[in-house]
Design a protein that fits this description.
The structure holds two protein chains of two kinds. Chain A is mainly alpha-helical. Chain A is built from eight helices and no strands. The chains are: A mainly alpha, B alpha/beta.
Chain lengths: ~220, ~260
């Protein structure tokens, strides 16, 4: 059976190592996207026209440009153009954060604007201070709107990191292909290796998706 | 002896150059219920919103007891703690249970102990017939129930005065009376109130004094029995006629149904 090859030598450990690269990349990206996304979201809501136009443009670019093209631009293009020798992982973090910031920012903007003005006023009418109003009334409600969507975006980011194998980052998919290469004489190796990788992605993303669904239901 | 709770002195307020309040003055004494009526856009709601600082007045002044409360930019929340307000759309906090809605103001703004307020809150909920909803989420309540909770929430702050801004305007007709009965109950209990409403029969029942506002000015004020039966100004007559006409027409259509 082809699946046995995964347990030969340190193959399984290698696969897990690759998975860790995937997760590390995703976690750094998600973290940075949250931080910059908050700024992005606030900029989108600002009264300065130029800021909102730039944000809109940024958002459109990441929505319509394939991530892979962005990766090539940064990894190969920047090296030629500016002489920056960025390694694959750094390039990936830059590109995915560029994307995640815009998408997360748009979600944060949506969450903030979704709270009716009346909520602020009725909290103010109770004699709460501005900080108390934000802490007890506005932010909890914004988070309830935001969290399910932010989690969904996070699973998309995790999945999309598979692209970085194209710029020579040895993440889980790349490791899998190396293992398949090792056992090229075994015709069903490819199926089993990819199947296990599919399972690994599933096991990582599924709990997030369940959590998002649960929160959506609970806070609806 | 001065038992004036609220003193509004010649206030002006305009939005984008449109004068919404144009020199309004009035006093509300302790325990008095003042009902403010007038056509849509006459400035009634704006007047209430100016009183608790949700809108900033252009000129004039507002006093609560002897304290000037208009024109301050700092510590507005301390003023609002003494002024209760309930709005048209039931603005309970949807992410909190009824009880947490009730506790928020007294425990956070007034630093009262939770157990003490909770006991008081349960008593008041029972009085308005909602004790069994104490730990429910707002979305499981009807509009009328939400407004009763909103009234309890405002009252738990033990305000000096309660401002009610068309609190039944967004309700289905069958829920109006359950809310207004609570207000009448509060009035009997001696609560000082300024009420904006379109419910003329309720206004007549609850008011100690009626203020008729039009075009941002007080056109007439007086005792409800005088104002509703014999309004002095033509504008007030006109305004009240618009209500009688509607009810006469309703009766007529009822009659037609019978004849058919």
């Amino acid at each position: 059976m082809g699946i046995n090859i995964l347990f030969k030598g340190i193959n399984f450990q290698r696969l897990m190592g690759g998975l860790w690269v995937t997760l590390r990349l995703a976690l750094i990206t998600i973290g940075l996207s949250c931080v910059f996304g908050l700024l992005f979201g606030m900029l989108m809501l600002s009264k300065r026209k130029t800021a909102t136009v730039i944000c809109r443009l940024w958002l459109e670019i990441v929505r319509f440009m394939p991530q892979l093209v962005l990766l090539y631009i940064v990894y190969f293009g920047f090296a030629r153009l500016f002489g920056w020798d960025l390694d694959g992982e750094t390039s990936a973090v830059i590109v995915f954060t560029f994307w995640g910031t815009a998408e997360m920012g748009d979600l944060i903007r949506g969450a903030l604007t979704s709270i009716p003005r009346h909520q602020f006023e009725s909290a103010a009418a109770l004699g709460l201070t501005k900080v108390q109003i934000y802490m007890h009334v506005l932010i909890p409600q914004a988070l309830r709107r935001l969290l399910p969507q932010a989690i969904n975006l996070s699973t998309r980011i995790i999945k999309t990191t598979a692209l970085v194998k194209m710029i020579n980052v040895t993440e889980v998919l790349k490791v899998g292909q190396q293992i398949i290469g090792q056992f090229y004489r075994q015709p069903d190796a490819a199926f089993w290796v990819y199947f296990v990788i599919f399972l690994l992605y599933f096991l990582v993303c599924w709990p997030f998706s369940l959590l998002a669904k649960y929160l959506e239901k609970r806070w609806a | 002896m001065n038992d004036t709770i609220l003193h509004v002195q010649d206030i002006y307020k305009s939005f984008d150059g449109n004068g919404v309040l144009r020199g309004v003055s009035m006093e509300i004494r302790e325990g008095e219920v003042v009902v403010i009526v007038g056509p849509s856009g006459c400035g009634k709601s704006t007047l209430l919103r100016c009183i608790n600082g949700l809108e900033v007045i252009d000129s004039g002044s507002i006093y609560l007891r002897d304290e000037k409360i208009s024109g301050r930019t700092k510590d507005l929340h301390l003023v609002r703690q003494k002024i209760g307000m309930v709005f048209q759309s039931y603005d309970l906090f949807p992410h909190m249970k009824v009880m947490d809605n009730l506790l928020l103001g007294p425990t956070k703004a007034l630093n009262k102990s939770k157990t003490e307020v909770e006991k008081e809150a349960l008593e008041m909920l029972e009085r308005v017939g909602l004790k069994e909803k104490a730990y429910a989420l707002p979305r499981t309540l009807s509009g009328g129930q939400k407004q009763r909770v909103a009234l309890v929430r405002a009252m738990l702050m033990r305000p000096e005065i309660l401002l009610l801004d068309e609190i039944t305007a967004a309700l289905d007709p069958e829920m109006v009376s359950e809310v207004l009965n609570v207000v009448i109950d509060l009035a009997r209990g001696g609560m000082t109130m300024a009420i904006v409403t379109h419910e003329m029969r309720f206004a007549e029942a609850v008011a100690d004094r009626v203020v008729f506002l039009e075009d941002g000015m007080i056109m007439e004020e007086g005792k409800p029995e005088e104002f509703f039966s014999a309004p002095k100004t033509q504008r007030a007559q006109h305004f009240l006629q618009s209500f009688t006409y509607a009810s006469k027409r309703d009766k007529k259509s009822d009659k037609n149904n019978f004849e058919d």
